[in-house]
Write a structure and sequence with these properties.
The structure holds two protein chains of two kinds.
Chain A: E1 2-5, H1 12-18, E2 25-26, E3 29-30, E4 36-40, H2 42-68, H3 71-76, H4 84-92, E5 99-105, E6 113-118, H5 125-141, H6 155-166, E7 172-177, H7 182-197, E8 201-206, E9 211-213, E10 218-219, E11 228-231, H8 235-238, H9 244-250, E12 253-255, H10 268-275, E13 285-287, H11 288-295, H12 306-318, E14 319-324, E15 334-337, E16 340-344, E17 355-359, E18 370-378, E19 381-390, E20 400-402, E21 404-406
Parallel strand pairs in A: 4-21, 7-8, 7-11, 11-12
Antiparallel strand pairs in A: 1-4, 2-3, 5-6, 5-18, 9-10, 13-17, 14-15, 14-17, 15-16, 18-19, 19-20
Helix pairs in contact in A: 2-10, 5-7, 6-7
Chain B: H1 16-22, E1 27-33, H2 36-44, H3 51-68, H4 75-82, E2 87-89, H5 90-93, E3 102-104, E4 109-112, E5 124-126, E6 128-129, E7 135-136, E8 143-144, E9 149-154, E10 175-178
Antiparallel strand pairs in B: 1-4, 1-9, 2-3, 4-5, 6-7, 7-8
Helix pairs in contact in B: 2-3
Classes of the chains: A alpha+beta, B alpha+beta.
Chain lengths: ~400, ~190
């Protein structure tokens, strides 16, 4: 894994305009940044990213089975009591997953470490699956990269295959995102392209325009009944909105399904550590409430995690991160090292939520930037990768998307 | 083995793209007849349907009529929707039907040139009168000005109507309320991560 400076494609900003990639620059900073790229070897991709990610997803499925069967864990993950049946039912019925993105810390050697799982509403699908793909093709054609370079990016094809496997030809699917969110919309339209290529009908409606019929079914903005709804809107919000009570009786299949609420939740991390302690791709993690006193030296850890805490105590003391169970774009995250706060996010939007504590692993540094690997799961298999980097230790909304390639 | 997609051609076109690229509906030859006899007569004059098509489609429409015609709890409400004299009790329409449930009389049928059925689509539909003198199908999802004539129609016109409560995807329904999603996440610049 190396960061390599490369000439930018001369016309790439025009190309971005043409294909509707309107957020290539954001907040006055570049978001898509091809002045350099990350180079990986094939074995780094396959052995350190791809296979471990597929394994992590299968461990997450075991965790989903465990959590949805436990009232106590659903409570700790702040699943609203009235909707726990909906979440558990969706798991028991085997409602299908489409996609998810693991955020991994990886420096080119040794096992990648799971930071969190965006299992419900991952974005940056468009720039990963399409714009990055085009970058590689252009750079190979221009001779900037060797003609037998490659990229870990079967994302689009995997999505087409997944949709075709799940739905009969010509099935109508609806897609929704909050109005006026170009990044979210780009992910939704990229998803819809895959559905269409799989022979399905794709229809879009703004989230705020969804309606409920007099028979309790969800309708789009043209009063058409919705049978399947891909929503780029998190379950923790769906379950707290006015229409939450209509979800179960509507008969509508939601994608991602409701059981993703227990994976796209930092409460997953302590559950995984409890189930698979010592797994090479996991960092020790605990619910803050269980070890708050123990980590500050004011008392014991909760009995059911006391031994596991003892085994991780030295690692946690060297460095740990507190994260709210529900948070996105790095909000309300604090990093502690040897008793000192070394970094804290400025966005405190989620600070009222319960927290988890995870052992700290530092991201590698390249030219003052710290890359995080986003490994994408489609169905139950890892299908591609994107890299974002940030100056901060916490990857936030000013992070940059960096293309990658596999060296021949 | 190559680790990337062979081709990816995605452009972000905006919501309009969905209607443009998404739902080009297949058109089929279709005809409406007020009754079986007029269909059979047209078949003898060499129309696009044979007398056998007429029989099969009529039988199917009649079955759908029993299964999926709109039901009302009074004749007054039924006539409000379908016009004076256009309704009868369920008991007169079907054996074992209720005398206190009312449904519109079948005023003809729509037949589509895809007999054999594809994708669960029924090739015929019963037609009912509307209060303003037009014609509609069982789901109430389309209106037609007449119950005889031929045209090109989208295949969705032949989607099987729901037998019980709850309508099939893409059929029209009446909105009871709108806008109940989105408030929990309001104020954020994006919902994903």
């Amino acid at each position: 894994m190396k960061k390599i400076s490369l000439p930018e494609r001369p016309q790439w900003r025009d190309h971005a305009q043409e294909v509707g990639f309107t957020f290539a620059d954001m907040h006055g900073e570049p978001y898509w940044d091809e002045t350099s790229a990350y180079a990986f070897s094939l074995s780094q991709i396959e052995q350190d990213i791809e296979d471990p990610s597929t394994e992590l997803h299968s461990m997450c499925r075991e965790a989903a089975a465990h959590i949805t069967a436990s009232e106590e864990l659903m409570d700790r993950l702040a699943i609203p009591q009235t909707h726990r049946d909906l979440v558990a039912q969706s798991w028991r019925k085997g409602e299908p997953e489409i996609y998810g993105r693991f955020d991994l810390a990886y420096d080119g050697t040794g096992p990648a470490k799971l930071l969190e799982y965006n299992a419900d509403t991952p974005t940056s699908l468009y720039e990963t699956a399409s714009f990055q793909w085009q970058w590689l093709e252009d750079q190979m054609a221009a001779g900037t990269l060797a003609p037998d370079s490659d990229q870990f990016n079967g994302l689009h094809e995997a999505l087409v295959t997944r949709f075709a496997a799940l739905f009969a030809p010509e099935t109508d699917l609806h897609f929704t995102a909050a109005a006026n969110t170009p990044e979210d919309y780009a992910t939704v339209e990229a998803m819809a392209w895959a559905a269409r290529e799989a022979g399905l009908g794709a229809h879009y409606c703004d989230l705020e325009k969804l309606a409920v019929s007099d028979e309790g079914q969800f309708l789009d903005d043209q009063d058409r009944v919705i049978g399947t709804l891909f929503k780029l809107y998190p379950w923790e919000d769906l379950l707290r909105d006015e229409y939450a009570a209509h979800i179960a009786p509507s008969g509508c299949l939601f994608l991602e399904p409701a059981w993703k609420a227990v994976l796209s939740n930092k409460g997953l991390l302590p559950v995984l550590w409890q189930m698979f302690e010592g797994h090479p791709n996991l960092l020790p993690a605990f619910f803050e409430a269980d070890i708050k006193d123990a980590i500050s030296g004011h008392g014991p850890a909760a009995p059911h995690v006391a031994k596991a805490f003892d085994r991780a105590a030295a690692q946690l003391a060297a460095g740990h991160v507190t994260k709210p169970i529900l948070s996105r774009e790095g909000a309300s995250i604090t990093i502690h090292q040897h008793g000192q706060v070394i970094e804290s996010s400025t966005n405190t939007a989620y600070s009222q939520h319960p927290r988890i504590i995870q052992a700290y692993t530092s991201l590698p540094q390249h030219d003052g930037f710290r890359p995080v690997i986003g490994s994408w799961i489609v169905g139950q298999t890892c299908a591609g990768m994107g890299v974002r980097e940030d100056r901060s230790r916490i990857t936030q909304d000013l992070s940059r998307f960096k293309p990658h390639f596999i060296t021949p | 083995m190559i680790k990337r997609s062979r081709t990816v051609a995605i452009t972000i076109l905006g919501a309009a793209a969905f209607t443009l690229a998404g739902c080009q509906e297949e058109q089929v030859d279709a005809a409406a007849f007020p009754d079986l006899q007029s269909c059979t007569n047209a078949a003898q004059d060499g129309g696009i349907f044979t007398a056998q098509d007429c029989d099969a489609a009529f039988a199917e429409a009649a079955a759908l009529h029993v299964e999926a015609a709109p039901r009302y709890d009074s004749i007054a409400v039924c006539e409000e929707q379908h016009g004076q004299g256009a309704c009868g009790s369920e008991a007169t329409a079907t054996n074992g039907g209720s005398g206190s449930i009312f449904m519109p009389l079948m005023m003809g049928y729509l037949i589509g040139n895809m007999l054999g059925g594809r994708g669960g689509a029924s090739a015929s539909q019963p037609l009912y009168k509307t209060a303003n003198g037009k014609y509609t199908n069982a789901a109430g999802s389309s209106t037609f000005s007449n119950n005889s004539g031929s045209a090109k129609l989208g295949t969705s016109q032949f989607a099987r109507p729901a037998a019980t409560v709850g309508k099939p995807p893409m059929s029209r329904a009446t909105a009871m309320s709108r806008g109940g999603f989105g408030s929990a996440g309001a104020g954020r610049t994006g919902m994903g991560g």
